[in-house]
Amino acid sequence: MTIEEKISRYEAIRKEYQEKICHRMSKEQYEEYSEILFSTHSCAIEGNSFTVDDTRALKKLGLGMVPHGRKLLECMEMADHLRAYEYVMQNLDHPLDEAFLKHINFLLTEHTISYHAPDAIAGEYTTEDMAAGDTVFGDHEKLIARVPQLLESTERACQSDVHPMIVASRFHGYYEYLHPFRDGNGRTGRLLSNYILMRKGHPQLVIYLEERQQYIAALKQIRTEGTDEHLTHFFLDIAIKHMEEDLRQKQQNTKPRMFVF
């Protein structure tokens, strides 16, 4: 299926999804559902062991409660993610510029960066070259110099008629390629992809932990093949998949059940 065909499929499901799920909940209920689900899985992709229930409890009770079996560092990371998420959702009218980007990364890493990179500063670009897993990133100075152009071109695209899923996926792929911060690049990039979608009135995109391998493979193909087409297909595929799953779950949970004493 081509990207254009997937966009048509996405739009048909999005209309049904927003009518039957988003608009049937209160704004607050849907936002909390999305925040907890997205935060749990975005942090899980980076190794955090929090479950959805852990994240819900942390949001309600704060750092006064550490879920059983979880590390304090994980709690701090999740609390920071919730704070950054809420900042982004409250500032969907803010243009995508360097100040916005840096503040989001600052909120995401403020209380944990000293554990991962003691000499780094939250919200500031890296001052050295980096590697992660089996990937050696490029010259950090040259990559960081391209960040303003990425932000400017993405901001223009947000104000154009380019489909938001195309904008979100292409931004995400190139942002992760540039990898400008010492820590939190994945969480920052995924959060900003949702910022792009939400600005245009689209549902948020959640990449589940179980989809991590496909996600990483699509990002790697940008480096090995020089194309972000695989990532765009991946974004559309999982968006369609998760909306369909939510719609099926709602239908299943609306069926009449036997009730006996």
Topology pattern, helix = H, strand = E: HHHHHHEEHHHHHH
Uncertain residue ranges? none
Kindly state the mean pLDDT as a whole number? 94
The CATH first-level class comes to Mainly Alpha
- Gross morphology: globular
CATH superfamily: Fido-like domain
**Spatial separation of the terminal alpha carbons:** 51 Å
| CATH architecture group name | Orthogonal Bundle
Major β-sheet, in short? 2 strands, antiparallel
- Count every beta strand, where a strand is a DSSP E run of 2 or more residues: 2
- The number of distinct structural domains comes to 1
Q: What is the overall number of helices?
A: 12
Strand order of the largest sheet: 1-2
Radius of gyration: 19 Å
Which fold name fills CATH's third level, the topology?
Fic-like fold
Structural account:
- By secondary structure, this protein is mainly alpha-helical.
- The protein has one domain (10-242): Fido-like domain (Fic-like fold), CATH 1.10.3290.10.
- Helix content is 64%, strand content 2%.
- It has twelve helices and two strands.
- The protein has a two-stranded antiparallel sheet.
- Helix 2 packs across helix 3 (52-61), helix 5 (98-109) crosses helix 10 (185-199) and helix 11 (212-225) packs antiparallel against helix 12.
- The relative contact order is 0.13.
- The model has no long low-confidence stretch (mean pLDDT 94).
